[in-house]
Structures are given as C-alpha cells and as structure tokens.
Amino acid sequence: MTGNEHGVEGGDPLLGTTLMERYHVKQKLGEGGMGSVYLATHTTLQKDVALKVLHGEYSRKPELVGRFLQEARAASRIRHQNVIDITDFGTTPQGWAFFTMERLEGKDLHELLEEERLAGRRLSWQRTKAIFLQVCSALQAAHDMGIIHRDLKPENIYLIERGGSADFVKLLDFGIAKVTDEADSPPGTPKLTKTGMLFGTPEYMSPEQAKGLKPDHRVDIYAMGCILYQMIAGKTPFSADNFMSVLTKHLTEVPEPIAAETMADIGAPMEIGRVLSLSLAKERNDRYGSIQEMAEVIREVEQGLSLTSARAAVQAKSRKWLYLAMGGLVCAAAVGGYFAVNGKAEAKQEASATKQPAIVVEKVKITINSTPVGASVTDDKGELLGVTPWSGELAKSSERRNYTLALAGHSDKSVTFAPEEKTTFNEVLSKVPQVNIASSSSSAASKRVTSSSSTAKQTVKNSKKKGSKVKTAKSKSAKSKVAKPKSSKAPEWDPGTVGLPELKNPATQR
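^ that's the sequence the OP posted. Answer follows.
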C-alpha cells in the first residue's frame, strides 16, 4: 500500500491509498456485514472499478477469507453478460482480502419495486418478464458451471442501462454460492460450508434450506419463484416478525393466491399462477427440473398455451436435441464399425428391426373452467390438482372419474367423466345464500308475541262470560322459547387451498 498510509484523518484507513500499487481508493460506496465497497481507479488503465475489501477483523479468519474469495472465483468462472464481471482478486501484503469488479450505475430490483409501491403501481408483465428471464439466463449459466447462488433476492439483481434497455440485469453477490464441482479445489482445501448450516435471506429460502439439508440448484428455482411472486403481487409469499417464523411458513404454509384482478391489471397470463405453484413446491422433486425449463415454460405460456401443454412442448424440445445428439453418436459409431469390420453395421440394423416397438400410452386433454374462476380442483383420491381454469392430460380410459370444484362462498360441484376423448367442461358455481339472522329472529319473535297476546285476550274474554276468576292464560306458544334459526354462515375457507396449491409433478398425474 502506498500514498497516505492512514487515509483521511479520523476516517477510513483505505481512503486516499493505493492498494496493490494499482488501485487508488477514492470513495466508499457502501458497507456490509463482512466488507466494504469502494470506488477506485486502476492507475495504469485509468479505469474506474468497484473494489470490495474484507473487513480487517475477518481477514484473520481463514474460513471467512476463503468464502470471500470464493465469491470472486465463482462469479469470474461464469462469464455471462448478466453476471457481474470480476476482474481481479487476491490478498494484500497487509493480509486484506479483496476483489475488483466492474463499476455499475443504476439501481437494484428492490429499489425499483419500492418506487413502484410508493407510487401505487406495479411493474407491467412485459417489464417483469424481461427482467426475470435475464436472471434465469444468468442462473442457468451458473448452474451449468456447477455454481448454486443460494442468496437470490431483489437486492442482488442490479439494473443498468445498456443496449437501449433501462432494465439490463447484472446478477450480484455470490458470497455464499455453493460450488458443487470441487474437482478444481486444491488438495486438502477445507469445506467452507457444512450440512445443517443456514445461509441466505429467510423470505427467499427454500424448505430444504430451512431444514438444513444439502442444497442443489433447485433452491435457486424456489427463490426465483419467491421473487416472481413479489414482482407480481407487490409482497413476498411469506413474511413474519422474526427469522424462524418466516422459515416455518416456508415449511408448512401455502402462499396466498394472487388475485385474478392483479394478474389482469399488469397483463400477466393466468397460467403464471400455476408456474408459481410449481416453482414454490415444498418438495424439490415437484419443482421444475431446471431454471431453463421454468423460463421456457413462461415463454410458451406467453404464446397462449396451457401450463401442461407448455411443459410438454419444452420437454419435447429437450428430448429432440437429446435424441439428435444420441443419433449422431450412434451414426458415428455405426460408420466406424462398418469400416472396421465389414457387415457389422448391417447386422446391427437387422437386429434392431426385430425389436418390439415401445408401448405408447394415448392421452386425452381434459379442461375444466368455472364461473367464477379460481375454484380448487380435487380428484377422486382427494389430491389437489390445481385451480380453474385447469387443464390436464390423462391416460385414455373408459373408467369414470369424479372431480370436485370448491370455491369460498359457493356450493361444491362434481364433474364426472371418463377420459375417452378431449373434453372441456364449463361449470357455473352457485352462491351459498346469505340469510339476515337478525331480521329473521325479530320477525319470528314478533309473530309469536302476537299469537300469545291473542290467545291470552281470548281466554280472559271467555273467563268473564263464565264469571270465573280471571287468570292469564299461558299457552304452549307463549311458554316455548323463541327458537334460534340455524346459522347460514358459509363454512370458513382456507385460502391456502386455492390459487397456489402444492402440485404434484404433472408428469406423475394420470
């Protein structure tokens, strides 16, 4: 370190110094729990950079230094336009760990969402989709390198102006990223995290993270579901007063459904609600297989396809490229074998031709609509399949099935069918009649009092005629208590069962 060794008097010791004889520290931009970020200039290139330095007290802890430098290594390995560009990293002679990255001017997604909230607005679907798909692209590049982010949140999604776009995404902060491929680590390198340790921000943590289980790329898919929910609804799926209460909700509760009016206001397809359901599934096996699949489904849904059809189209594309690749390998092997041993290729083809064809299960599409929309759809076994408008592909069969539609304030309705051909049901749900209990009780009581009064008057009149003592008659009608009418209050409805159900993987629904 050269220049002013002590920085500004009474201030930060790094300000005004030159780090590693090439980074002149000019200004502090921000400070976090473990380090600070400065504006610095590369003295040779005369280029401004953002300089992140680990706090002095943490620089003496090898595990924290290792995690800090892993952020630099992880981000620098990805090399994607939507990931922050790391240009240099290391440790100074004084023992301070640091890395430099491109300087960004803009705002993070959290700031943007807060601005929209204060203005009484929400982001349009087109703007939401553009930002979200860029993050998906950056994440897929990270996952392809064996890197799991583990701390996705709006604060780590930075928006800058580039290429005519005001929402060009830069994904930040790989500080707690999990590198699944440890082949590049030097022998004897200690693990920076252990199973059971909790890392991340509670509002975006997956159920398996809350349990302390070993994470995989699907924790990022869950976090992206939380972020997409927030971008549309204006709030996170779960919130509470403390860390553990939020984690408990991730483990046990279903997010409140986003109103159809909200979807319509921002121009989002209704099927996005089911995209959220799959990405926020409690069991990771029930989520999308990759962040790329989730992004492709959103693009397909945008074209008007149902979620089931969109997933089928995306999976068909994946299989097509897999089959082409496998076919290329098979052809190459066949040609090589032909030239190596004349006649072997023909023999293999003949043997292949005698194989039994694969059994293909024919499926039919069943669609159930309801008025009003948003009714839960439950099958014969009580499994919650989704909400209306609902579509599913079932194995063709003459066996009859009975599905039930349920919506708060409405009577349940059964839909009975045999999945023999493509069918669409349009069901109208009847409202549960509301009874004014107070007026009913008052009217009934009034009638009873009038009746009792008339009976008593008649008794007195008859008694006078006979000359007997006048006694007030107490008829059975007067003695009996006023019967309370049965309550017509509709049964309480659990909103967690509508809109964002925990769906089974559509591939297993038959």
